[in-house]
Amino acid sequence: MYEVRFHGRGGQGAVTAANTLADAAFREGKDVQAFPMFGVERRGAPVNAFTRIDEERIDIKTQIYEPDAVVVLDASLLDVVDVTNGLKPGGILILNSSKEPGSFDYGDAKVYTVDATSIAVDNRLGTETNPIVNTAILGAYSRVVGNVKLESIFEAITMNVPVKVENNQKAAKEAYEKVKGV
Amino acid sequence: MYEVRFHGRGGQGAVTAANTLADAAFREGKDVQAFPMFGVERRGAPVNAFTRIDEERIDIKTQIYEPDAVVVLDASLLDVVDVTNGLKPGGILILNSSKEPGSFDYGDAKVYTVDATSIAVDNRLGTETNPIVNTAILGAYSRVVGNVKLESIFEAITMNVPVKVENNQKAAKEAYEKVKGV
Amino acid sequence: MTEKEELELFASGHRACAGCGEGTAVRQILKVAGPNTIATICTGCLEVVSTGYPETAWEIPLIHAAFENSAAVAAGVEVALKELGRKEGVNVIAFGGDGGTFDIGFQALSGMLERGHDITYICIDNEAYMNTGIQRCSSTPYGASTTTSPTGKYSIGESRPKKPIAAICAAHGIPYTATANIAYINDLKKKVKKALETEGPAFLHVFAPCPTGWRHGSDDTIEIARLAVETGVFVLYEIIDGDICNLNVTVKPKKRKPVEDYLKRQRRFGHLTKEDIAKIQQEVDEKCDRYGLPKRE
Amino acid sequence: MTEKEELELFASGHRACAGCGEGTAVRQILKVAGPNTIATICTGCLEVVSTGYPETAWEIPLIHAAFENSAAVAAGVEVALKELGRKEGVNVIAFGGDGGTFDIGFQALSGMLERGHDITYICIDNEAYMNTGIQRCSSTPYGASTTTSPTGKYSIGESRPKKPIAAICAAHGIPYTATANIAYINDLKKKVKKALETEGPAFLHVFAPCPTGWRHGSDDTIEIARLAVETGVFVLYEIIDGDICNLNVTVKPKKRKPVEDYLKRQRRFGHLTKEDIAKIQQEVDEKCDRYGLPKRE
Amino acid sequence: MTVKITLGAINKEHGSSRKYKTGGWRTVCPVVDLEKCISCYRCYDYCPDAAIKKIENGIEYDLDYCKGCGICSKECPVKAIVMVKEEK
Amino acid sequence: MTVKITLGAINKEHGSSRKYKTGGWRTVCPVVDLEKCISCYRCYDYCPDAAIKKIENGIEYDLDYCKGCGICSKECPVKAIVMVKEEK
Amino acid sequence: MGEQISMTVKGNMATALGAKLCRPNVVPAYPITPSTLFPEKMSEFIADGELDASMINVESEHSAMSACIGASATGARVVTASASQGVALMHEMLFIAAGMRLPIVMAVGNRALSAPINIWCDHQDTIASRDSGCLQFYAENNQEGLDLMINAFRIGEDHRVLLPVMVGIDAFVLTHTMEAVKVPAQEDVDDFLPPYKPKYGILDHREPATFGSFAPPEYYQEFKYEQTKAMEKSSEVIDEVFADYAERFGREYCKVSTFQCEDADIILLTMGSMSGTAREAIRKMRGDGKKVGLAKLTVYRPFPEAELREILSKAKAVAVVERNISPGSTGAIYAELAGAFINQKKKPLLKNFITGLGGRDILVETFREIYEKTLEVVKAGEVKEPMEWVAMNEEVMR
Amino acid sequence: MGEQISMTVKGNMATALGAKLCRPNVVPAYPITPSTLFPEKMSEFIADGELDASMINVESEHSAMSACIGASATGARVVTASASQGVALMHEMLFIAAGMRLPIVMAVGNRALSAPINIWCDHQDTIASRDSGCLQFYAENNQEGLDLMINAFRIGEDHRVLLPVMVGIDAFVLTHTMEAVKVPAQEDVDDFLPPYKPKYGILDHREPATFGSFAPPEYYQEFKYEQTKAMEKSSEVIDEVFADYAERFGREYCKVSTFQCEDADIILLTMGSMSGTAREAIRKMRGDGKKVGLAKLTVYRPFPEAELREILSKAKAVAVVERNISPGSTGAIYAELAGAFINQKKKPLLKNFITGLGGRDILVETFREIYEKTLEVVKAGEVKEPMEWVAMNEEVMR
Ligand SMILES: Cc1ncc(C[n+]2csc(CCOP(=O)(O)OP(=O)(O)O)c2C)c(N)n1
Ligand SMILES: Cc1ncc(C[n+]2csc(CCOP(=O)(O)OP(=O)(O)O)c2C)c(N)n1
Ligand code: SF4
Ligand code: SF4
Ligand code: SF4
Ligand code: SF4
Ligand code: SF4
Ligand code: SF4
Ligand SMILES: [Mg+2]
Ligand SMILES: [Mg+2]
User: Fold this and answer.
1) Which of A141, C174, D242, H304 is most buried, judged by most C-beta within 10 A?
2) Interface mutation target, options G357, G360, G398, chain E, most CBs of E under 10 Å
3) Rounded CA gap, D233 and D284, in Å?
């Protein structure tokens, strides 16, 4: 079982990211779950979303406390949220940042960065102040974690992100290519 | 245990009669219960009310199916209601009627009559078309059944019939004296 | 009179008190509505006296669910009829007592009006909760004695004015609102007809005295209903499209009788002093002035 | 500005979305009301963002019981204060969202108004159920897309006009009714003051945009609120003693802007066609004519 | 009157209240003088119990249901109806 | 922030929401140019989060709570406030 | 001690008199048969200046309980009355009143729930609110109705409890039936019941507090736990208060009271007014040499499982007679009683009898039948049909 | 047979898809977290012409159920959704819908009841309506949610049943969680579920009938009896329909389904989404050699007492794990299970665990703890503390 936690802000699309990732894995014949943080958070507030992926049927219904990977959609969260909380030893941390992975120190976590914001803006996803980075970052995820193919993410985007499908796919592809630390 | 059923029409005061009788017996140290027919009957419809009197504590909470005595406040009910239904063999039937007891045939029931209507009208209780006969008839009850003293009924009237107390008491007294069949 | 008008769709044998104004109201309303009508009712006298199992006084399909939801049940009926293709030519009437309309069912009513269902809501107003034994309702007029607004050392009886239900409903902006009265059968019937012909929600407020609760003779019911209009206590009007500021008074007494004529006939007002009556008179006068009714006799 | 006015009785740290109009509304209302105030609220955004245990944004006594009963809870508070001799100098405010006011809490509100409690009821209207994620309310204006009145092949979005809540409340005959808007703080504050000074029930309808639900920028909240007034979509007025036919418009735009200026700023209206907008414009024009507002630019 | 129960208490015996004769409630009885009657049918209209039938040139009582409220008598414009104490 | 529960969840810590710093939500930050400011206090009035304090001749931000909505900036009549992307 | 005045009153008047003696401040109420006389009497007391309180004639029961909550949170002593559909309509608010720990007292005229609509005696209305967190007492007669109201305030307001309390009196059989009751003197009730002192806080601008918070998963279960513990704690508070009441006023109450149980093979477990008839039936059956006893539940919430175990464990079988039914299961008391016994070594056979629904009269003969059916179980040594309906009107069955 | 389409959807979408396949005519609904997505999706289906039906966006849940009643009595197939306070607010109307024998289907997002307010998973909302006469199903996952909706219509509308049915899916854990589901083809559902044919009558002017009569004591108990019998009868209807569904769609449902029960000393009895976690926990514990099994309640009303007896009687102890509490008593399932066993010779020890209230997460460790505690009971051979709360947040306790 592989467990992923996404960090974003209310309205930024973390939940869609989790859903899209799950859907992508599902298309590869895996069993999946995706769920938001169960809360009442409002737009702007830090929120989480989760994905579970397994070859076997997933029975467990608990929340995710010790993810294998953490994906951060908004680097400004790093100051306000303890993003590696519970991250498995040696787990993966994917950050939306223009910086190099090496400029972050998160202990034994393996850090990867991708400038998803620029990619999103380039692909006209969201606005400059409110770029929608969730599809881009999934491209990076696909590359880094490798348990979901980029093609599956493309497919899942078609279902879960009904607008600007191609732009989103393109963003995912670019991020797949540009992610740093691999 | 002595059980009494009153027959009247909605609005005619059968319930007050039952309550007043119970209260009178209570004043003599007896245990009592009084209750209306449990229903939704409207003004004008035939209704019943009941009284239980006992020297002992009354535990039983059922309705009364086999009364020792039946009191009919309105003779016009005789055509529409089976007033002796369930009356104990040899039980007492007190009718508000100007006729003689002998003009009624109710098998082995002991019939008594009193012209409570005239007595009520004479004492200005209710109107000519709507005389309030319930106190008068209790006077007759006291005489006929004898398990409650007329004085107790006077007292109970004070509590239960807040208007025209004296007229009501006088009516009870007259009925006590005039009841036929004793 | 048409054949339909002769049908008695609210059957004899119902157990309302002798002289109950509700009987007259429902009989006449159903004469206009005819057999192609489905009705809902609230808990209350109307339901209790007409649906005691295994009997029913209703000749038309009727549903009673609870006290507070005649309008919501009717909404379900109306939408289902439409969905099932059976609405055409069928009236849906939601009946409510004043309690079921002014108070506990008011929200369901307001929601129904707002959503624009093709339903005629008819409130039969006897100015208190009669079924449970004459308790105060927001329809109860100032000064009336009820069992929960009793007159007493520290109480005049009901201390609040009657809730202006028709105006409130009209303020929803519904196509048709009217007040009616069982003493004015033709006016009543015309309004029922108009309401039923209205597409969308209509609200009818029907004044129907209750001899038991108002404490008057069973034969006085119609006369007292008439006096309410003749004194200006209850004004008969229509409001089209919620235009409250242009209401159309349909029955104008030539000269208004003093309210005392109305009040003194009912023992629920028996305790009122001259001053109390003068106060009520003044309020009625003011209202009638607003409505453009003639001055008082 | 008095010292009392400087008090922030609705504290920072509440978790409303950035740019939420409710925050502005409540802050300003409490500035007028001051600390000697007890408030009740409905379930809704306001409650969820301000009372998450173990925190509370409220500096005054507050009670939230359920979604539909702010007015009824307030009635209990008011009567208890009076009975316990603590009402003197204390304001009781019942807050409700539009859902808690127009829909599910409307009956409790109507009952409270009718009974004449000394309570100021304030509806903070963001034209949908926001807390549960933008569902249709009877406050939702014609044409707005919500999650339960979605635009679609067979749907224009919300198909019913906005329920005229202030007129309906005024029709109860209450002493003070007013509409207000967070863009017009002085007007709002004056009205809050009047409402609180009123003896008996007052109803205040406060327009407060929701960037999340209306889908506009978080910085647009005030501008959009202002546009609602400048276009005549939302009219600011007062009604004294329920005299609906004599309402007093307190803010009259010199010239009315076209409704398009208002609609096009919000993505909830994004799907409307030219014809749809023309229809809305016409309705607004008619309403503004009735209210005596200036003609459109 | 014992009747078998029906599913969910749905009652298809529409108008079956007529089985119950509310005439038994009456203590005073309306009597019409058809000579006086002008067939205005106000009595018919106002009767809460549908206990009056229209006939040619007048009305007829259905005493099975008349509760004796007296409305018809009071509302008759020509006083053609009197209420008489029931002799049972 | 773990707090002991209180009877019936009655919360006497009035105004305790201030413990939670909504400043963390901000992605853009208002910056005022006090030179331009005319102390009209519209920004103060409109701020949904009470994140603006009045000072002599102007205003001051309480960045612990400012969510960066941009209302103050937009409503300032003299454009004294600009929103700046947060550099964290 | 002032003298107790004896008088004959209806059940609703008895609960109203009990309430009046407790000097409530606010009475929000909505009429419903068969409890309407309660608000009527309270209105009269107030109109006549006999009680210094305010009625709130609300527009529905939902608002009645809402106004109770508002008033109680403001520090007032609050009482209301309802029944049937009214209790059902305030269902949501009952949980909220309990969750907020407000000691509101409610007199209920126990009546059947619709559909079909029926106004007569049945316990389903309050039973269906048994999860709400309100204490529930049931009276056998009017005297109990009056006394339990007074006890209800003292118990509910005890700082170890702080929960709403319902006092059930059976529709018509009590509410509309006149019986003799003794009414304590005001000064003695004043001594017994001190003024209401909220424990933790009230709505008061001098000490602002937020009531009705939003509780995330970190806290909710703990609030429920505390509330549940308070309910459990109320068990001992009830004992104390009942004992104090007995000492002062001479009338003894127990959560479960017994009659002829010592040597009984079969015990009838009853609640409410049927208990009187059961006692009468037992006297008769004892006359016929049958070893039968009665256990009467006065307190149903908290469910007195320890007491019931103690009383019933010696019997061979217990007939649980209930005026409620959970379709698809059994009567509520039967299941809970089973819960109390399931892990015990020594336990009687249990049989559930459903009867008295919607005002079906429960007769002495009904109890005889119940006894006979239970006796068969004892003879067989096993329970084949755990639940039976008795006093069915076979004539109307299809 | 058409192909079943696999897709990932949230729980609310699963129940909405299930409902849509049943071609309801009328959908009166009111939004409430966590079930709001259901009416939203239905609105969308209708707005897009994918479903030929009407929404009624009522102003409250009381009116939602009222409109359901009106529409169902008119002959429409009706579905709605609600949760928590919404279910509580329609409490009165649930009894009425059932008493009128209207097969309304309701998807519930099971959530805690106020106060304090909490939007998370908990079964108290529907449990507190267990007396209403509605059937109650609980889903473990989204697939079950979808399938149970389809079964619900067929079972509720069966002429032997004719009762409302609730399908519970856990708040957030299912409602907001995306999982893979297989969606049957429309034509197959059409085959499985014939159009709704009311049995006795509808509101139709061509055949006038009165619904919602006033029933005096001569009849009421008999109506309740018939209704109760219909609920009991539904037990066999459920078996039939589940079997037919399995045959057609390949997914098997049982009122109580089991996992590793054959040789289990200790069986965990669960309901809803916690069952999945319990299965996972059991796999782990089996790995450690512990003889533990799972019994999952899919049908709670009618309470499957026979099935539970059959399954559980061989165990030494049963741990009844519940997301509800009746303060002053126990969890609802515990008591009813005790009722099912009380008169049995062979029965396990029963222990009740209250947990998961208000969204408290139920972990694999929670089940381990529950197992250990139950093991102690088995070792001791007796149950000292029949009810325990687990997964308490000790930190916040006073
Ligand atoms: C929820 C609920 N509350 C209270 C009642 C009791 N109740 C039934 S009818 C009624 C009064 C009816 O008054 P109204 O609507 O004015 O009709 P009327 O009987 O006066 O014709 C009341 C209080 C009920 N049935 N349901
Ligand atoms: C009885 C009940 N039904 C539904 C809900 C769910 N609910 C909570 S808040 C809300 C919407 C609130 O809308 P509104 O009053 O307009 O306030 P807003 O959130 O928009 O500020 C809903 C539907 C509830 N809490 N209780
Ligand atoms: S109480 Fe009044 S409304 Fe009810 S039946 Fe009698 S007269 Fe009619
Ligand atoms: S959803 Fe709207 S009303 Fe709710 S907090 Fe956000 S902006 Fe405010
Ligand atoms: S009211 Fe008089 S005149 Fe008119 S029809 Fe009747 S009896 Fe004849
Ligand atoms: S007396 Fe009354 S019931 Fe009889 S016929 Fe005349 S109006 Fe009808
Ligand atoms: S709005 Fe602009 S000018 Fe006015 S106080 Fe604020 S910063 Fe200064
Ligand atoms: S950006 Fe928004 S929250 Fe921040 S100070 Fe300005 S108005 Fe207030
Ligand atoms: Mg009425
Ligand atoms: Mg809103």
Assistant:
1) A141
2) G398
3) 6
CA distances from B84 to B72, B136, C194, G54 (A): 10, 21, 54, 48
Contact between residue H389 and residue H354 where contact means Cβ atoms under 8 Å apart: yes
Domain count, chain H: 2
Nearest to residue D288, comparing CAs of D216, D210, D231, D203?
A: D231
- Tell whether H104 and H85 lie within a shared domain: yes
**Nearest CA among H154, H175, H124 for reference residue H16:** H175
- Beta-bridge partner residues of G180: G8
CA distance D288 to D293: 5
What are chain C's domains? Answer: 3-291 (3.40.50.970)
Q: What is the pLDDT of residues E19-32, one digit of tens each?
A: 999 999 999 999 99
Token digits of residue D272: 């409307």
Q: G218, F5: Cβ pair inside 8 Å?
A: no
Instruction: Tell me the residue range of the domain where B12 lies.
Output: 2-178
| Residues from chain A contacting residue D15 (CB–CB below 8 Å) | 40-42, 45
pLDDT over 50 at D157, yes or no: yes
Kindly state whether residues H240 and H264 are assigned to the same domain.
Answer: no
Q: Are residues H260 and H291 in the same domain?
A: yes
Contacts of A65 in chain G (CB under 8 A): none
Please tell me the total count of domains within chain B. Answer: 1
Q: Are residues H130 and H149 in the same domain?
A: yes
**From the CB of residue B29, how many other CB atoms can be counted at a distance below 10 Å?**
10
For residues G305 and G324, membership in a common domain is answered with yes
Would you state the structure tokens that stand for residue G303, as one six-digit string?
Answer: 């469910």
B92-137 confidence digits (pLDDT tens)? 999 999 999 999 999 999 999 999 999 999 999 998 878 999 999 9
Chain B interface includes C7 (CB < 8 A): no
Q: Tell me, what amino acid is at G127?
A: I
Q: Do A31 and H180 touch (CB under 8 A)?
A: yes
Q: Which atom of ligand 3 is nearest to the CA of C17?
A: 6
**CA–CA dist H217, H223 (Å, integer):** 10
In DSSP terms, which residues pair with G170 in a beta bridge?
A: G110
Would you kindly state where each structural domain of chain E is located, as residue ranges? Answer: 20-85
F71 lines ligand 7 (CB under 6 A): no
Domain end point (choices G227, G249, G271): G249
Of H249, H266, H297, the position where a domain reaches its end is H249
Q: Does domain F20-85 have CATH number 3.30.70.20?
A: yes
**What residue type is assigned to position G117 of the chain?**
I
Nearest to G34 by CA among H57, B39, A17: B39
Q: Which residue of C has its CA nearest to G88?
A: C66
Ligand 6 pocket test: which of E25, E31, E32, E52 has the largest number of ligand atoms within 8 Å of its C-beta? E52
| H200–chain B Cβ distance below 8 A for any pair | no
pTM flag (> 0.90):
yes
Residue C2 has pLDDT above 60, yes or no: no
Interface pTM, i.e. ipTM: 0.98
- Helices and strands (DSSP H and E) totals, chain G: 13, 16
Cα-flanking dihedrals φ and ψ of residue A83, to 5°? -70, -25
**Residue B74 backbone zone (phi > 0: left; psi -120 to 50: alpha; other: beta):** beta
Relative to beta strand H5-10, strand H26-29 is unpaired
**Segments forming the whole domain that contains residue G52:** 5-249
- Å from CA of D128 to ligand 2 middle: 9
> Could you tell me which of G129, G95, G99, G118 has the C-alpha nearest to residue G332?
G129
Instruction: Mark yes or no for CB contact H200/E9 under 8 Å.
Output: no
Task: Name every chain B residue with its beta carbon within 8 A of the beta carbon of H216.
Answer: 39
Question: Does residue B62 have a pLDDT over 90?
Answer: yes
Report the b/e string of D56-86 with b at 16+ CB within 10 A. Answer: bbbbbbbbbbbbbbbbbbbbbbbbbbbbbeb
Q: How many whole angstroms separate alpha carbon A158 and alpha carbon C227? A: 73
- Which residue from F minimizes the CA distance to A131? F27
